[in-house]
Design goal:
The complex is a heterodimer of chains A (about 220) and B (about 375). Chain A has eleven helices and no strands. Chain A is an all-alpha fold. In chain A, helix 1 packs across helix 8. Chain A has a single domain, classed as MetI-like fold, CATH 1.10.3720. Chain B contains eleven helices and 21 strands. The chains are: A mainly alpha (about 220), B alpha+beta (about 375). Chains A and B meet through helix 6 and helix 7 of A and helix 2 and strand 7 of B.
Chain lengths: ~220, ~375
């Protein structure tokens, strides 16, 4: 059996989740703790992938990141990076699709942290960064983990946008979800069952362990 | 250390506009719930930004709306004990106390934390999480955490409100001790009258976001400047009358219910004029019940009123007696120690005479009441 789709899906999901958490945490904190002009608009943009069809999202990304797109041309000419029809394109698709799933619970968790807890830390002489690192994030930990898991799950299951941006190139951009689709199309039921089995067991284990390890300690 | 400020802040339905200055002593900030006490502490500490005004610590401005100075919270070195303590739930007692001083060398930090743990009677609880502590232990941990950073000024926001009576007494004593050991400009917020009286050297009374009076305990309790102050401080016996005559140190006031009252004029107080309306009153514990079996003492022979006891309410160490002045509908509230209450054999319906000592009567000219 070809294990490449499993390996690729893991790689894409891990990298996409990493970016979702890193960028999403900053966004979640901003949305939870700051008031600024255009906050509502920014929120609506981040949440778009939840409501917009994945193919439409994929189309936007394709236009934006492709050779003729502004961002795509800049990346290719200046940095020498090609996104479209590469595994990196799959990462971008998975990242955009999973970001709102991380930001939502993370924002709610940060909003749930008692502001006086943060103020107490400031009064004890801590900078904003220290407050975030030692108080806000540890106290919002469960929401952040929950968001990361949701983002990871979304990234592993990403299909529509990935297909649009990265295509279906076996051994290069064919992720698990796409491989399952391919197998079913070609009538390879055995292959489809195996891949479906892998993804089902994996998803179950992730949720089980996350629930176990994030049970309230305080 | 000294703290002086004059700040204004408008919220949607509420505003504060308060200023005073205080030095190395304990100032009680007293006022009813919703008077703006916590908001004031937030504004002074930098948690909330005032709309205008200034805040000075040791004559150095930490905030000034005109010059734009606004020192961040972390550099103000203000210790703030929140009403709910705001202990970090994910840290042990030790970690909580060490939190503000973890930039020190490990040995110095440890020595300091251990000293505070001993001082606060927390030995043996170092490794507990806040949720495993009693209310009193939580509060002592929070206080230790604050004191560890050696703040210049200490804010205590209703520190005892969530604790039961016994713990409260003990903590009050602790706090007085700490205050003696580390003399620090302290602002103590409370809406508990007894606590205000026990703790305060100076008392600032705020109501509806405004300072009603600021002065020593005796000034505020016995010479209230406004009718509100008298009311908040539990002086139920407030009347209006007209100055009939002034005779040296004595003013004679006429009131239809209590008749002619002689009162000692406070030399530091406002100027009184004959014919002017005044608000006057007397604290419940300053009213003397006259013992019929003894000759009347010279000190209490003025302002004697006859009447009857309407109700009595036992309050632990003392009794509150409501006394109806004969021929009127006016009630006086009298606070009387238990031993005297028993000796006088007071009960509902009993006819007694009381004396309003002239030096215990406070007066506020009406024109100042209306400010």
């Amino acid at each position: 059996m070809d294990v490449f789709p499993v390996y690729l899906t893991l790689k894409v999901s891990v990298v996409a989740t990493f970016f979702s958490v890193a960028i999403g945490l900053a966004l979640a904190w901003l949305m939870a703790r700051k008031d600024f002009w255009g906050k509502g608009v920014l929120d609506a943009i981040i949440m778009q992938p939840l409501v917009i069809p994945p193919t439409v999202l994929g189309y936007y990304l394709l236009v934006l990141l492709g050779r003729s797109g502004t961002v795509g041309r800049f990346l290719e000419d200046v940095l020498g990076v090609t996104l479209v029809f590469t595994w990196k394109g799959a990462v971008v698709a998975a990242f955009v699709a999973s970001l709102p799933l991380f930001v939502r619970p993370a924002r709610a968790a940060i909003e749930g942290v008692d502001k006086n807890m943060e103020n107490a830390a400031r009064l004890l002489g801590k900078t904003e960064w220290e407050v975030l690192k030692t108080i806000t994030v540890p106290l919002a930990w469960r929401g952040i983990i929950a968001g990361a898991v949701m983002a990871f799950a979304r990234a592993t299951g990403e299909f529509g946008a990935t297909l649009m941006v990265a295509g279906n190139i076996p051994g290069m951009t064919q992720t698990l979800s796409i491989a399952i689709y391919d197998a079913v199309q070609m009538g390879n039921t055995k292959m489809a069952n195996m891949l479906v089995g892998i993804i089902t067991i994996f998803s179950f284990l992730v949720l089980y362990f996350v629930n176990r390890f994030t049970k309230g300690r305080y | 250390m000294s703290l002086s400020f004059q700040v204004k802040k408008h919220l949607r339905r509420f505003s504060i506009d308060v200023g005073f200055s205080t030095e190395e002593e304990l100032t009680v900030l007293f006022g009813p719930s919703g008077a703006g006490k916590s908001l004031l502490l937030n504004v002074l500490s930098g948690i909330a930004r005032p709309d205008s005004g200034f805040v000075k610590i040791n004559d150095i401005e930490v905030f000034n709306s005109t010059t734009g100075i606004n020192i961040p919270i972390r550099e103000r070195r203000i210790g703030y004990l929140f009403q709910d303590y705001a202990l970090f739930p994910h840290m042990t007692v030790f970690e909580n106390i060490a939190y503000g001083i973890n930039h020190l060398s490990k040995n110095r930090m440890k020595a300091k934390v251990e000293e505070l743990i001993a001082l606060m009677r927390l030995i043996g609880f170092e490794d507990r999480l806040p949720k495993e502590l009693s209310g009193g232990q939580k509060q002592r941990t929070a206080l230790a955490r604050t004191l560890a950073t050696e703040p210049r000024i200490l804010f205590l926001d209703e520190p005892f409100s969530a604790l039961d009576y016994q713990v409260r007494e003990k903590l009050r004593a602790d706090l007085s001790l700490i205050h003696q050991r580390y003399p620090m400009t302290t602002i103590f917020v409370t809406h508990d009258l007894e606590e205000a009286f026990v703790m305060g050297e100076k008392i600032a009374i705020i109501n509806n976001g405004r300072l009603e009076q600021f002065g020593t305990k005796d000034e505020v309790f016995y010479k209230p400047k406004t009718r509100n102050v008298a009311k908040f401080l539990g002086s139920r016996n407030i009347f209006t009358g007209r100055v009939a005559s002034l005779n040296g140190t004595i003013a004679i006031i006429n009131n239809p219910d209590v008749g002619e009252i002689k009162a000692l004029i406070d030399i530091k107080g406002p100027q009184l004029l004959v014919g002017e309306d005044v608000t006057f009153g007397i604290r419940p514990e300053e009213i003397m019940v006259i013992r019929p079996d003894r000759p009347i003492d010279k000190k209490i022979q003025d302002n004697i009123l006859d009447g009857e006891v309407v109700t009595t309410i036992g309050k632990g160490a003392s009794h509150t007696v409501y006394f109806k002045i004969k021929g009127t509908d006016t009630n006086l509230k009298i606070e009387i120690p238990n031993f005297a209450y028993r000796k006088l054999n007071l009960s509902k319906g009993k006819q007694i005479s009381v004396s309003l000592k002239r030096e215990s009567i406070w007066m506020i000219p009406e024109k100042q009441v209306k400010v």
